[in-house]
Specification:
This protein is mainly alpha-helical. Helices cover about 55% and strands about 10% of the residues. The strands form 2 sheets. It has a two-stranded antiparallel ribbon with strand order 1-2. Strands 3-4 form a two-stranded antiparallel sheet. Strand 1 and strand 2 form a beta hairpin. Helix 1 runs antiparallel to helix 2. It is rod-shaped and about 80 Å long.
C-alpha cells in the first residue's frame, strides 16, 4: 500500500509508503516540506491549493495528473542516515589502517621470534621466555587481524547505509560498531553506532531502504 498526494508548492504527484503518514516529507523537485497525509482521512487527501494559486500544467481535468511520481521520503531518509554513516565510515577507515599496521608489526615480530634469529642484546630471552613472547605476538597479531576485518565490515555497512542499500548489512555494521572490544576504536564507534541503530530502526528510514533500489 502507498499514499499518493500532491506537493503544496509545485503540484508534483508524490508517492510514499502508508507507514509514513503524519511524518515530514520533502519534495525532491522543489524541496518543499509537507506532512504526509493520512489515507484513512479523505479530507486530508484533498487536492491542495498551490503556492502560486494556479494548477500546474498537466493537472487540468486530471486530479492525479500524469507526471512521474516521486518518493519524497527517500530524500529525508538520505539526510537522516548521512550523519552517522559518514562518521562510521571515517572512523572505521582510520581503524582499518591502524589495525593493518599493528598486524604487520606483530607479524614481523612473530616471524623474528619463530626463526630463532639472534635477538638484540637488550632482549636476552631464554627459550621459555622466547616461546611466551612468541605466543603473545601471535595473540596480538590475531586480534589486529580481527579488528581489521571488523573495521572493513563496519565501513562497508556504513557505506551501504549512506546509499540506502542492503538494510540488513547496514544494520550489521552498526551492531558491530557498538560491541565493546570487538570493533577497533570502540570509544569512538560506539556512540556513532548507537546513533546509526537509532536511525535505522525508524520505520520511514527502513521503508526507504526497501524502495530506494
Amino acid at each position: 500500500m502507498s499514499i499518493e498526494f500532491r506537493c503544496n508548492q509545485c503540484g508534483r504527484l508524490l508517492r510514499t509508503g502508508d507507514d509514513t503518514a503524519g511524518r515530514q516529507a520533502q519534495c525532491p523537485v522543489c524541496g518543499a516540506i509537507r506532512i504526509v497525509p493520512d489515507a484513512t482521512r479523505p479530507e486530508a487527501m484533498a487536492t491542495p491549493a498551490f503556492a502560486n494559486g494556479a494548477i500546474p500544467a498537466g493537472m487540468v481535468g486530471d486530479p492525479l495528473g500524469n507526471a512521474p511520481m516521486q518518493t519524497p521520503f527517500l530524500v529525508v531518509a538520505l539526510q537522516r542516515v548521512a550523519g552517522p554513516a559518514t562518521a562510521l565510515m571515517l572512523i572505521a577507515g582510520m581503524a582499518a589502517v591502524l589495525a593493518m599496521l599493528a598486524a604487520a608489526f606483530w607479524g614481523l615480530a612473530a616471524m623474528a621470534l619463530a626463526s630463532n634469529a639472534p635477538l638484540p642484546p637488550e632482549m636476552p630471552f631464554g627459550p621459555q621466555e622466547r616461546a611466551n613472547v612468541l605466543k603473545s605476538c601471535l595473540f596480538y597479531l590475531t586480534t589486529s587481524a580481527i579488528w581489521f576485518f571488523v573495521a572493513i565490515a563496519v565501513y562497508a555497512g556504513a557505506a551501504r547505509m549512506k546509499r540506502l542499500q542492503s538494510y540488513g548489512f547496514a544494520k550489521m555494521g552498526a551492531v558491530l560498531a557498538v560491541i565493546p572490544c570487538v570493533a577497533p576504536c570502540c570509544l569512538l564507534t560506539v556512540p556513532f553506532g548507537v546513533w546509526a541503530l537509532w536511525v535505522l530502526n525508524d520505520p520511514s528510514v527502513k521503508a526507504a531502504f526497501d524502495r530506494s533500489g
